[in-house]
Write a structure and sequence with these properties.
The chain has 451 residues and is α+β, with helices and mostly antiparallel strands. It contains 14 helices and 18 strands.
Length: 451
């Protein structure tokens, strides 16, 4: 039994794919562009420039919050988060503090574990620092992009659950069509907060959920991880590192660390021995944001059927396996494609080939069908053609069967002794020799009769 229980909370930043930035009209299509070419007085924080909120970005933030079963603040506001860093031109970041757009959400894992969402709030992104040849360069193209931060409660106790939650979250924002969530481009950045607590063990030997009063009085934040694999490795590394420190009687430092993917380890970036004081105060240049119940209901109607519900419906409605339903639901466009194909089951081609939803699902998955180029009608024609076989001449069948039997005496003996599975080997040999498309099940039946 483990001596310590990992206590893990998550902060995830999701960059929205709006056409313009959060508080100005600069193009949000910055990736790969010449540095500092997508800027203006607002996102550079020049004196006298006034921010104007992006309405679409706010609605998309609310949509994410609703998809995570959050409550929505009907009265909300923006705040100034004050700190000095080279990638922050104004000396403060426009974010949200005490009245985020969404709060008190919940999401469920496959295991049935429920993970609480503390808040979903809107803020602007910072510039990007590049370090080369002993110098640090700042590119402000990214500065001011709409960024949604999703913060969980410290409800995670292992890296596997963290990875599943993050994969689910990526799926959800892609289903909502509000972000590409491409981690290689920085569209989705992962920041786990990790600490260890002594495991509470009951008299019967089972482990109890850690009470709030027993939570550790420190936390280590690992910043800006850009892959599920790396976040899993970073958590496991931190658990091992902190365990070794605690076993020696040392308290792990409260600090921010980074992840070195080459050395496969975390490294210290800056100490946070005391709570960071950002001196939040209401943003004076942006009026409070209000949402009526009708507006919230209208946004909720735009939330599509999400992956978990779609998987359950696919299993029930189409009779396909959980595994197939899960694969088909990974991308919304793929799930929609599957349903379009199954909706054509009354199509003449489908009737002729007697396609079932199960067969259609298997075909799409196993053939890795390119749904962008293969129309549902063409797919059904391919499936129908694959089932068409030619008749077998009896004399030809007898001749080839005798050849297969004489060339494979051991397999014949095994079949005769009751090893039914070997018959498929003989069927395969027969199909190679005949050189044309015949019904494999018919061949199997006739070979068994001949034996």
């Amino acid at each position: 039994m483990n001596k310590y229980t990992p206590i893990i909370g998550l902060e995830v930043h999701v960059e929205l794919k709006t056409e313009s930035k959060m508080f100005c009209r600069c193009s949000a299509d910055y990736f790969g562009k010449e540095p500092n070419t997508h800027t203006c007085p607002v996102c550079l924080g020049l004196p006298g420039a006034l921010p104007v909120p992006n309405k679409t970005a706010i609605e998309w933030c609310v949509k994410i919050a609703l998809a995570l079963n959050c409550k929505i603040n009907e009265f909300s506001k923006f705040d100034r988060k004050n700190y000095f860093y080279p990638d922050l031109a104004k000396g403060y970041q426009i974010s949200q503090y005490d009245l985020p757009f969404g709060y008190d959400g919940i999401t469920e894992l496959k295991s049935g574990k429920k993970m609480r969402i503390r808040r979903v709030h809107m803020e602007e992104d910072t510039g990007k620092l590049t370090h080369e040849n002993g110098a640090s360069l700042v590119d402000f193209n990214r500065s001011g992009l709409p960024l949604v931060e999703i913060v969980t409660e410290p409800d995670f106790h292992d890296a596997e659950d963290v990875k599943e939650y993050l994969q689910n979250l990526q799926q959800i924002v892609r289903y909502l069509d509000v972000s590409n969530a491409d981690m290689e481009k920085g569209d989705m950045r992962l920041e786990p907060n990790i600490s260890l607590a002594l495991t509470t063990t009951l008299q019967d030997g089972t482990q109890e959920i850690i009470p709030v009063e027993l939570l550790p009085n420190y936390k280590v934040e690992v910043k800006n991880i850009n892959s599920f694999k790396f976040v899993e490795k970073a958590i496991n590394y931190e658990v091992k590192r902190q365990t070794e420190l605690l076993d020696k009687g040392e308290r792990p430092a409260q600090e921010t660390r980074g992840w070195d993917s080459v050395k496969q380890r975390t490294f210290s970036q800056r100490s946070k021995e005391d709570a960071q004081e950002y001196r939040y105060f209401p943003e004076p240049d942006i009026p409070p944001i209000t949402h009526t119940k009708e507006q919230i209901s209208s946004i909720l109607k735009e939330v599509p059927e999400l992956p978990a519900k779609k998987i359950a419906r696919f299993e029930k409605e189409y009779g396909i396996s959980f595994t197939d339903a899960e694969i088909l639901s990974r991308e919304k466009l793929l799930a929609d494609y599957f349903e379009k194909v199954t909706s054509l089951r009354d199509h003449e081609v489908a009737k002729q080939s007697q396609q079932t939803p199960q067969a259609i699902a298997k075909w799409i998955i196993n053939k890795k069908v390119d749904y962008a180029t293969v129309t549902p009608e063409v797919l059904l024609k391919h499936m129908a053609a694959a089932k068409q076989t030619v008749a077998i001449d009896e004399q030809e069948f007898d001749r080839i069967a005798e050849e297969v039997f004489s060339e494979n005496p051991q397999a014949v003996a095994a079949c005769k002794s009751g090893k039914d599975s070997v018959i498929m080997f003989l069927v395969g040999q027969f199909m190679k020799k005949i050189g044309k498309k015949v019904d494999a099940q018919l061949v199997r039946k006739k070979l068994q009769e001949k034996l």
